[in-house]
Amino acid sequence: MGIVTNSTDKYQACIDACQRCAQACYECFKACLNEEDVAARKKCISMLIDCAMMCQMSVSMMAMDSQFAKQHCELCAQICEQCAQDCEMFKDEHCQKCAQECRRCADECRKMASM
Q1: Distance separating alpha carbons of residues 30 and 14, to the nearest angstrom
Q2: How would you class 35 by CB atoms within 10 Å of its CB: exposed for 0-12, middle for 13-18, buried for 19 or more?
Q3: Domain 9-113 carries which CATH code?
Q4: d(CA 90, CA 76)
Q5: In the chain, where the domains are located
Q6: In angstroms, rounded to a whole number, what is the distance separating the alpha carbons of residues 62 and 41?
Q7: How many CB atoms lie within 10 A of CB 71?
Q8: pTM of the model
């Protein structure tokens, strides 16, 4: 629920999913940097940052009830889906968990964008 108003309560599930996804991406980013095959993960590591930053911006847009929040969340869903696909290429647990969070976020962003 909103912190100081209730005007964004309708977005709360998406806000929560975006916050979790951003955190998962940052955690996965750090873990991937410590993997032996870090060079093979270059594209995925870059995507993790794109996804985390997009999710954080989506939270901001929804919290402000921006007129562009829905369009922003549509793009966020696309980026989350791509990040999930990239993470799924690696079989370690942190990448698999991150992919799950990205897919959940993409689903919530699509729901929000269709409101």
Answers
A1: 24
A2: middle
A3: 1.20.1270.360
A4: 22
A5: 9-113
A6: 31
A7: 12
A8: 0.94
- What tokens were used for 87? 């993470």
Contacts of 56 (CB under 8 A, 6+ apart): 18, 22
Q: Residue holding tokens 């998962």?
A: 24
Alpha-carbon separation of residue 55 from 18, 44, 92 (angstroms): 5, 16, 23
Cβ pair 53, 65 in contact under 8 A: no
Q: Which residues contact 114 (CB under 8 A, 6 or more apart)?
A: none
Predicted pLDDT of residue 13: 96
Cα(94)–Cα(101) distance, rounded to whole angstroms? 11
Going from the first residue of the chain to its last (115 residues), give the mean pLDDT of each consecutive group of 10, the final group possibly shorter.
79 97 98 95 97 98 96 98 97 97 98 95
User: What pLDDT, on the 0 to 100 scale, is given for residue 76?
Assistant: 98
What type of residue sits at position 35? E
Q: From CA 84, how far away is CA 97, in angstroms rounded?
A: 9
Three-state DSSP at 55 gives helix
